[in-house]
Write a structure and sequence with these properties.
Layout: H1 4-20, H2 33-41, H3 49-59, E1 63-67, H4 74-90, E2 100-103, H5 107-124, E3 130-132, H6 139-146, E4 152-155, H7 157-165, H8 171-177, E5 180-183, H9 186-189, H10 195-202, E6 210-215, H11 220-229, E7 235-238, E8 253-259, H12 265-274, E9 282-286, H13 289-301, E10 307-309, H14 315-326, E11 332-336, H15 339-354, E12 382-385, H16 392-399, E13 409-415, H17 420-430, E14 441-443, H18 449-465, H19 468-495, H20 528-543, H21 591-596
Parallel strand pairs: 1-6, 1-7, 2-4, 2-5, 3-4, 5-6, 8-13, 8-14, 9-11, 9-12, 10-11, 12-13
Bound molecules: adenosine-5'-triphosphate.
Biased composition (Basic and acidic residues): 7-18
Keywords: ATP-binding, Helicase, Hydrolase, Nucleotide-binding, RNA-binding
Motif (Q motif): 24-52
């Protein structure tokens, strides 16, 4: 067993190594050649900064608390060393329970992590078994999934608790077998209400178990989890260097905002999309499901096809919508970030519970839905906040859906006077600073008043036709369609897991056929500035090989290292006893240059 002094000197070595060697390879990190080959097949050649720091530490058996920006490659940072450790263990594995648990807050993330781990295992051709547990599974399905047992279990904490309470997982077996526990998106686990579920598990985590906490933001919740789960004294925290607010948003994401009344938001978003002032693919956030459908119906009248994603839809449909969007089958996805609705529902439920009248407390929304947080949307260029999120953390997670890996991205927030207060809160959470792109939300420069006014008449006319009843009917219709889809999907995808085209989710819901004259914006309605702006966007798109949203052409390496979230992770040593941290080299020297670029979207 190493002493605390050993621990500190190890940390210092790691730190210096990182400072010296910015271009380390996976090989130099000690990664197994099979994993390196698998990564090459996935087009991944070099580790990201968080991977450079975390992989050797995890391989060395340390507990790690890793905090790194959204899109910085945290999943591989733990999945790769975890698999490597299991490569050597699996032959001698006589365990009665899984060796590794990966706990995630949402089903969507569950699916994503499971798929990443499975695909690496398949590419490495090793005898490891990974399974995912879902809360919809019956006790016998859970039993079947855990038979064997698998080497890796991906699950929400709630399912683990269910397995323990139903006797599907034996606590003693867990104590004897569990060697690695990962809490992914740790900052969200408690806010999704998993505290009791986690507590039910902690009693059975053996002391020798290696624990890893991955998170995009730091919060009191992460601290709480650290205390709850991490009992091994060898902990390395990897927060960002210096100011906590340093580069919370990746530097290759440009953030913009537009001030407009709540009523005018429809005409503004129409102008952004129809006049092509933002690049595709576009992810649009609303705060309520009804607003999501209102937007969809509104867009349909202008020939803009979009799909909606929300917690009301069956799980298969949600996962399929994500797959289709990631594969580039449609360009506009309206996602409802309904953490607020969930909270409201939870309040209602607890009220109902207090009254001991639970029969009306049916859960309509899926509490494990979480499309905003942690999901790896592929090639989303623009995130639009149609409604503003309720907190700084919510904003960070939403914006983090663009600018992932080596891509650039932009965000546009439509802010009404009623939302100014929360907007100010968000800005102070980011530590807004005009000299740093990553923290600064600039006024959107490409939309002129003329352009908005030219569309106002048409937009308001259509907006009036999208009545509450129309929204309610289309919401019900979509749910019916998706329930049918869900059944078909289940059956079909068991046999053809890669067949994405079968069911499209961006079909038209409006009863009223779109008027042909609304499809195109006639040239006489467009002022020269807007025409110019739209051309600039198209050219930028073409220059980046982004003319077809389904295919990302490599423009890796064209970014300056410092403006890339994957390159700019920096780590700092724990507060006590270790100073210095891993600094980004020359991080501020080209700020002026970045500011000049602010005009392009
Ligand atoms: N070394 C690498 N080189 C290039 N791309 C990478 C590398 N590592 C991961 N990626 C890609 O980067 C994207 C983001 O990775 P990941 O989802 O792990 O980010 P994250 O840090 O977990 O973000 P979030 O906090 O939003 O969940 C993924 O598409 C992943 O395939």
């Amino acid at each position: 067993m190493a002493t605390a002094t050993d621990k500190l000197s190890h940390e210092n070595e790691d730190h210096e190594k990182e400072e010296q060697d910015d271009d380390q390879t996976f090989e130099e990190l000690g990664l197994d050649p099979r994993l390196i080959r698998a990564l090459t097949k996935k087009g991944i050649d070099n580790p990201t900064p968080i991977q450079r720091v975390a992989i050797p530490l995890i391989l060395a058996g340390k507990d790690v608390v890793a905090r790194a920006k959204t899109g910085s490659g945290k999943t591989f940072a733990y999945v790769l060393p975890l698999l490597q450790k299991l490569f050597s263990d699996s032959a001698s594995n006589k365990n009665l329970a899984p060796t590794a648990f990966i706990l995630v807050p949402t089903r969507e993330l569950n699916q994503q992590v499971y798929s990443e781990a499975l695909s690496l295992i398949e590419l490495c051709r090793v005898q490891l078994k990974v399974v995912q547990l879902m809360s919809t599974m019956s006790a016998s399905d859970l039993k079947t999934a855990l038979a064997g047992p698998p080497d890796i279990l991906v699950s929400t904490p709630a399912c683990i608790k269910t397995c323990l309470s139903k006797g599907v997982l034996n606590p003693t077996s867990v104590q004897n077998s569990l060697s690695i526990l990962v809490l992914d998106e740790a900052d969200l686990l408690l806010s999704y209400g998993y505290e009791d579920d986690l507590k039910a598990l902690t009693a059975h985590i053996p002391r020798r178990c290696q624990c890893l906490l991955m998170s995009a933001t730091s919060s009191a919740d992460v601290e709480k989890l650290k205390k709850l789960i991490l009992h091994n004294p060898y902990i390395l925290t990897l927060p960002e260097v210096g100011d906590v607010k340093d580069d919370i948003i990746p530097q290759n994401v440009q953030q913009f905002w537009i001030s407009c009344s709540a009523r005018d938001k429809l005409v503004y978003i129409l102008a952004l999309l129809k006049l092509e002032l933002v690049q595709k693919k576009v992810l649009i956030f609303t705060n309520t499901i009804d607003m999501g459908f209102r937007l969809k119906l509104f867009f349909e009248q202008f020939g803009i096809k979009s799909a909606v994603l929300n917690s009301e839809l069956p799980q298969n449909s949600r996962l399929h919508i994500l797959e289709e969007f990631n594969a580039g089958l449609f360009d506009y996805l309206i996602a409802t970030d309904d953490s607020q609705s969930k909270k409201e529902q939870a309040d209602v439920e607890s009220h109902v519970e207090q009254k001991k009248s639970r029969k009306h407390a049916k859960r309509k929304l899926d509490s494990e839905f979480g499309v905003v947080r942690g999901i790896d949307f592929k090639n989303v260029h623009t995130v639009i906040n149609f409604d503003m999120p309720q907190s700084g953390a919510g904003y960070i997670h939403r914006i983090g859906r663009t600018g992932r890996a080596y891509n650039t991205g932009a965000s546009v927030s439509l802010v009404s006077p009623e939302e100014m207060e929360i907007f100010e809160e968000i800005k102070s959470a980011l530590g807004e600073d005009e000299t740093r792109d990553s923290n600064f939300i600039a006024p959107f420069p490409l939309l002129t008043k003329n352009a908005v006014e030219s569309l106002r008449y048409r937009a308001e006319d259509v907006a009036r036709s999208v009545t509450k009843i129309a929204v309610r009917e289309s919401r019900a219709q979509d749910l019916r369609n998706e329930i049918l889809n869900s059944e078909k999907l289940k059956a079909h995808f068991q046999d053809n897991p890669r067949d994405l085209d079968l069911l499209k989710h961006d079909k038209v819901l409006s009863k009223k056929a779109p008027a042909p004259h609304l499809r195109d914006v006639p040239e006489y309605l467009l002022d020269p500035t807007t025409q110019e702006a739209s051309k600039v966007i198209k050219l930028a798109r073409a220059a980046m090989g982004n003319t077809n949203s389904g295919h990302r052409k490599g423009f890796k390496g064209k970014f300056r290292k410092n403006s890339n979230p994957l390159k700019s992770f920096s780590a700092e040593a724990p507060k006590r006893g270790f100073k210095g941290g891993m600094k980004r080299k020359g991080k501020d020297k080209d700020d002026g240059h970045r500011n000049k670029k602010k005009q392009s979207v």
